[in-house]
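Re: beginner question about structure tokens

> Can someone show what the tokenized structure looks like for a real chain? I only ever see the sequence side.

Sure, here's an example I had lying around. Input first:
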Amino acid sequence: MSRAAGLLALLLAALPARAAEVYIGVEGTAGRSAFAMGLDAFAPADPKSAQDADAARRLREVLRADLLFSRTFDLREEPPPADAPDALQAWKDRGSAFLVRAAAGQSADMLSLQVSLFDLGARQPLMSRYYRQKADNWRLLAHAAADDIVRQLTGRKGVARSRIAFVNDQTGSKEVYIVDYDGAAPRQVTSNRTLNLLPRWRPDGRALAFTSYKDGNPDLFLYDFERGRSSVVSDRQGLNIAGGFSPDGATLAATISRGKEPNVHLIDMKTGSAKAVTSHFGVDSSPTFSPDGLQLAFVSDRAGNPQVHLLELAGGRTKRLTHLNWSDSPSWSPTGEWIAFSGRANRKDTLDIFLVDVTGTRLVQLTHGEGQNEAPSWSPDGRFLVFSSSRAGGKPKLYIMDADGSGPRVLADLPGGSYTPNWGP
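And the corresponding structure tokens:
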């Protein structure tokens, strides 16, 4: 039994005893032209300040990495000669259609960044923004600028300010961590030296739901980043496992057992009341909301081995989507067309990442036996997936790949094993 497939069984055991590589139409690297973008050196706000010069260099490096990650820009970085009579024309002559210029400066504990985006064809600025942030969180300035550039030229929200929550066992316990989308700045969220599981972002990015055994029972908690503390969401006897929030954050879909068979419940985040939306012998688990909040995808073993099902919340009608040997950990794409999940086609296969469309008629395999590949989660723009994989040998690490399965790369090479990532806003 794999780690993902056996997770629910391990949770149940911990309770007290009771009576083909295919282009699939999601945005990967294929079939998309890039914007030819000049990226000038960032200037220090004070030309005589070594501190400003260092800030300018560091911010440019992060912004550059953000733009490259987006797969949207073909960067041109060799500047024209300093004595060029018309610098904008010189950048255009070198093949750039747009140009980014910026200046950075630091005063006391505050860092500032002024960014301008030029349309070289029209010879006019498309965007001019001023950003200011405490210097100890300086990377946020570059991330914010990158997201604004992406939105300005594509109309699409960028992901540079997004974060990923996951579980890691480097301390000897499984604790919840978060990391920037690019694998930088990992931070430990829990430190209760016990078993913490399955973090799930609230849509506003200000809180995380997760399950913890810190009080002996697998209870459901909400960590508030602004307050820096956790509160109980559900401590009903038995399983209390977060699945995912509704788009408005008012409802949390969860697996709750209450001493009976685990079923999917909807928890009202204001009142704490929980309403069962499945009632079936066996296990219904891992619910994830559709982007419109009208349906849930979830895993059920009602047909034998676990498979992904759909539930229409208004009418209660269910539909089976997958017919593999094993299916687990569904994650609904932000654009609504696809559900990513981990599964295996045959009993002896390793776990791989698949996509199934919402009709259940199209199935696409994204990974192909490179270790155990588990717990996929979509980026906020629906263009990338994060997942855990043991492909490098040893304990699993976090990987990111394009939504068509191309370009897999390690997100964060942290000590210990990293599990169940969830990509937040």
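Each token stands for a local structural state, so reading them left to right follows the chain. Residues 1-31 have pLDDT under 50 and may be disordered.
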